């Protein structure tokens, strides 16, 4: 596992353990138990995880998720800490780096920011750059279906176009906050929005933003 992915993985496991199985998350309708089961199924049951993207496989995913959600919560947390099994594609370093850094960062914040007393994390510049590079690659995908033009901008002026169109809304923030915004956590992301007021309202209300 890469350094950043491993750090976020272990932090997520610790937060889930501390919060307990019935704590809220930013994932609508999911408790911490549901989120833990999702993480484990994604890594350990590729036969079912495809249901996250393919509608025809959704019933199988639902059954497997129910199976894992029913497991002891402590077991789920230990499986997250242990990491993917050898046969999982996520055990490959290249796949881990490309897929798990954002996955675990976002889910860590899903747990943290659902608590009333959360405070922003002080993330190092290297990690911010890593998140930005991932966001650049995924911007068009996470911006598909957005009802306005969408530009994501770092405080240093770097930008990426997530969706072409007019009117344009520019979202400014640190890469860590832009990732949360782009992956559907608009209400929890600490960002600034510039553009037509009606376009901003549409963007904030859309359910299509994110993967």
TrEMBL record:
This is TIGR03085 family metal-binding protein. It comes from Streptomyces fimbriatus. Transmembrane segments: none annotated. It comes from the Bacteria. Residues 12-45 form the Mycothiol-dependent maleylpyruvate isomerase metal-binding domain. It holds the Pfam family MDMPI_N. The lineage of its organism: Bacteria, Bacillati, Actinomycetota, Actinomycetes, Kitasatosporales.
